[in-house]
C-alpha cells in the first residue's frame, strides 16, 4: 500500500508518518525542503523521540522523499498509484498543493476509478473540505463528477504537541506521547483505511469542540493566569496554587457545557481533562506563557475558546466563575512584544474593559456575563 504525505515537517514525520508506518504503508513524503527530501532518500528512515522522562525512540522505516516543486511528474505518477493521501502543511498551504493534487487526479481518472481518500491533518476546522473545493477549481465538469464519486475528503481533527526543537540530525523529531486523530467516516470512499490510532466517527463536531474547549481553553487559562502571576512556563503555571484551582474549575465548567450539549459520559470526560492537564505538566513539551497567550484579541473572540463556552453556560443557567476569571486575566495581558496585547491595552486604557469586551467579544455591557467578567477583572487588579 502506498501513502503520500504532503509535508515532511515535524507533524508530518512525527505524527502522521509514524502511524502510516505502523499500518505498513510505503510512505512518500512530498515537500519543498530539499535538505529534508535528500536526507529521507539517503537513509530511508528516521527517528522519533517521545518527549517524556524515558525518552523512548521509534524508528520509522521504508520512507522516500519527493521534491513536490521540482518533481511534479513523479508526484502525478504517485497520485495515480496512491491508496491514501494525507497532508500536514499548514492551512494556508492547502491552496498551493491543490493544483498538483488535481493534476494527479486527472491522470488517475484516465487509468482507474479505484476509490481514494485524501485527509487534511491540519489545525483547522473543515480542512479536507477546503482542500476539496480548491482541487475542484482545476477540474472539468466530468472530472468533478468522478471526484465526487470516487475521491473522499473526510474532515479530521488532530491533536499532538510537537515542541519547538533543534537537533543535529535534521530528520529526528520529538513529539509528546499523547495523540488524537479523529476522522469523520461519512465521507470516506471505499473501505475505512486500517490505521491503528485513527478514531472514526459519524460526526466530528463534538470532538472538535471537546478539543477546543479542553485543550485550547485550558492552555489559554493557564497562560493568562500564569502571566498574571509572573510565571514563565506552562508546566510551572499549572502547578501554581493560585492558577491550578481556576484551571481545573474552568475545565469542569467547559466539561459541564460539553456534557449538556453532546451528552458526553461525564466520568470519561473527566479522564480526558486529567490527561490534558497532565500534558500541560510535561516539562519536556512545555512552552512559554507569552507564546501560548499570544493574540489575545483573537482568543477573546465571540466564538473562541473562552467566550463561547462561557456564553453557553450562561444559557444553561450556570455562572462560569472560572472561565470569567480566565477572560479577566486575558484582559490584563499586557505583554509589550505582542501587537494584539498592545492594542487591547490601549482600548482598555482609553475606553474601559467593558468597551473592549463589546468590541472584541460582542458582549453588550448589560450582559450578565460582561458584569461577571468585570467583577473578576476588578478582583484580579486588587491582587496585583
TrEMBL record:
PROSITE patterns referenced in this protein's UniProt entry, alphabetically: MANNITOL_DHGENASE
Record-level GO cellular component terms: cytosol
Keywords assigned by UniProt, alphabetized: NAD, Oxidoreductase
Gene designation: mtlD
Sequence ranges assigned to domain Mannitol dehydrogenase N-terminal in this UniProt record: 1-196
Highest rank taxon of the organism: Bacteria
Protein's recorded name: Mannitol-1-phosphate 5-dehydrogenase
Catalysis: reaction(s): D-mannitol 1-phosphate + NAD(+) = beta-D-fructose 6-phosphate + NADH + H(+)
Amino-acid positions noted as binding NAD(+) in the UniProt annotation, renumbered to this chain: 3-14
NCBIfam families: PRK02318.1-2 (NF002646), PRK02318.1-3 (NF002647), PRK02318.2-1 (NF002649), PRK02318.2-5 (NF002652)
Residue ranges of every copy of the Mannitol dehydrogenase C-terminal domain listed in the record: 203-380
EC number, UniProt record: 1.1.1.17
Amino acid at each position: 500500500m502506498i501513502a503520500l504525505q504532503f509535508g515532511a515537517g515535524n507533524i508530518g514525520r512525527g505524527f502522521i508518518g509514524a502511524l502510516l508506518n505502523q499500518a505498513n504503508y510505503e510512505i512518500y513524503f512530498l515537500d519543498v525542503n530539499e535538505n529534508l527530501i535528500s536526507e529521507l532518500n539517503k537513509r530511508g528512515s528516521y527517528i522519533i523521540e517521545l518527549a517524556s522522562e524515558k525518552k523512548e525512540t521509534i524508528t520509522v522505516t521504508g520512507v522516500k522523499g519527493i521534491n513536490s516543486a521540482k518533481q511534479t511528474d513523479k508526484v502525478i505518477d504517485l497520485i495515480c498509484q496512491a491508496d491514501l493521501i494525507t497532508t500536514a502543511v499548514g492551512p494556508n498551504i492547502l491552496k498551493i498543493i491543490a493544483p498538483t493534487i488535481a493534476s494527479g487526479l486527472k491522470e488517475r481518472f484516465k487509468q482507474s476509478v479505484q476509490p481514494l481518500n485524501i485527509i487534511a491533518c491540519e489545525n483547522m476546522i473543515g480542512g479536507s473540505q477546503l482542500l476539496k473545493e480548491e482541487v475542484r477549481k482545476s477540474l472539468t465538469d466530468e472530472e468533478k463528477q468522478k471526484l465526487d464519486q470516487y475521491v473522499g475528503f473526510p474532515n479530521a481533527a488532530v491533536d499532538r504537541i510537537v515542541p519547538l526543537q533543534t537537533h543535529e540530525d535534521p530528520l529526528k523529531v520529538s513529539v509528546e506521547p499523547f495523540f488524537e486523530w479523529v476522522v469523520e467516516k461519512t465521507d470516506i470512499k471505499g473501505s475505512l483505511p486500517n490505521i491503528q490510532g485513527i478514531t472514526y466517527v459519524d460526526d466530528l463536531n463534538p470532538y472538535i469542540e471537546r478539543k477546543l474547549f479542553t485543550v485550547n481553553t485550558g492552555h489559554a487559562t493557564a497562560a493568562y493566569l500564569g502571566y498574571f502571576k509572573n510565571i514563565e512556563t506552562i508546566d510551572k503555571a499549572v502547578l501554581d496554587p493560585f492558577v491550578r484551582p481556576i484551571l481545573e474549575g474552568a475545565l469542569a465548567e467547559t466539561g459541564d457545557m460539553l456534557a449538556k450539549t453532546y451528552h458526553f459520559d461525564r466520568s470519561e470526560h473527566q479522564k480526558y481533562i486529567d490527561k490534558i492537564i497532565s500534558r500541560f505538566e510535561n516539562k519536556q513539551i512545555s512552552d512559554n506563557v507569552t507564546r501560548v497567550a499570544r493574540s489575545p484579541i483573537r482568543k477573546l473572540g465571540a466564538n473562541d475558546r473562552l467566550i463561547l463556552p462561557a456564553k453557553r453556560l450562561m444559557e444553561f443557567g450556570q455562572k462560569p466563575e472560572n472561565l470569567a476569571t480566565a477572560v479577566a486575566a486575558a484582559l490584563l495581558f499586557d505583554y509589550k512584544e505582542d501587537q494584539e496585547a498592545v492594542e487591547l491595552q490601549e482600548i482598555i486604557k482609553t475606553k474601559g474593559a467593558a468597551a473592549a469586551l463589546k468590541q472584541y467579544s460582542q458582549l453588550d455591557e448589560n450582559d450578565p456575563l460582561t458584569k461577571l467578567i468585570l467583577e473578576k477583572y476588578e478582583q484580579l487588579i486588587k491582587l496585583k
